[in-house]
TrEMBL record:
Organism superkingdom: Bacteria
Domain Nitroreductase: 11-186
Similarity field: Belongs to the nitroreductase family.
Organism of origin: Pseudoalteromonas maricaloris
Pfam family name, one: Nitroreductase
Keywords assigned by UniProt, alphabetized: Flavoprotein, FMN, Oxidoreductase
Gene3D superfamilies: NADH Oxidase
Cofactor(s) required, per the database record: FMN
Entry-linked PANTHER family: NAD(P)H NITROREDUCTASE YDGI-RELATED, NITROREDUCTASE
GO MF entry, a single one: oxidoreductase activity
Official protein name in the record: NAD(P)H-dependent oxidoreductase
Keyword Oxidoreductase: yes
Matches recorded under InterPro entries: Nitroreductase (IPR029479), Nitroreductase-like (IPR000415)
């Protein structure tokens, strides 16, 4: 993909206000999530999960906790990014096992990696862990938006929801998860007034500071 193609994709995507009734094939959704998993992440830990919802009954239950935003109900799939609130040490240990399965390094190196990661992260309390996990989820969202555009899948990233209520509806506390953000996906409706409007963004001079 060259710069011109990338610029075209970034201009094509927008935060959809109204989705059509078209459904995205499951294999495309699977690929979208798979490629999102290649996003940058601190230490490579990916301390979040992506929950995929296609059942209308669940979407309907979430709608009252989404400030009435209809696109939470009317979409192909609703994706929920949730922070992994399980013990950090266990997340690190799982990662090291995955690392061993993919690399052939000396055991001392693995031990040093594990020790270094645990030392860097062990001081986090629940509040700081959720904040840190949320930052990683937002990094992944950026990847999802670009990958989705390359697949001609529309997305509307959203944080304007009652996250605690989402946790309750989805039963996330028992899974050591907490809602961070949602991303309804689908195909834009032809009547969406924002579908063909130009983007309004800061100029480079307003966006950029050189020091």
């Amino acid at each position: 993909m060259n710069t011109s193609q990338l610029e075209s994709l970034l201009n094509w995507r927008y935060a959809v206000r109204k989705f059509s009734e078209q459904t995205i094939a499951q294999d495309k959704v699977d690929k979208l999530i798979e490629l999102t998993g290649l996003s940058a992440s601190a230490f490579g830990l990916q301390p979040y999960k992506i929950i995929q919802i296609s059942k209308q009954s669940i979407k309907k239950a979430l709608l009252p906790h989404s400030y009435g935003q209809q696109k939470v109900l009317d979409n192909s799939h609703l994706l929920v990014f949730a922070a992994d609130m399980s013990p950090i040490d266990s997340q690190v240990e799982r990662y090291i096992q995955d690392f061993k399965a993919n690399r052939n390094l000396d055991e001392l190196i693995y031990a040093q990696m594990e020790s270094g990661m645990k030392d860097a992260l062990h001081t986090m309390d629940c509040v700081s862990q959720y904040s840190w996990c949320s930052e990683q989820a937002h990094l992944a969202l950026g990847t999802l938006l670009l990958v989705a555009a390359s697949m001609e899948i529309d997305v509307c990233p959203m944080t304007g929801i009652d996250k605690v209520a989402y946790d309750d509806v989805l039963g996330l506390s028992s899974l050591n998860l907490r809602t961070v953000l949602i991303a309804p996906i689908g195909i834009r409706d032809s009547t969406d007034v924002n579908a063909n409007t130009s983007k309004v963004r800061k100029s480079r001079d307003l966006l950029h500071i050189e020091v």
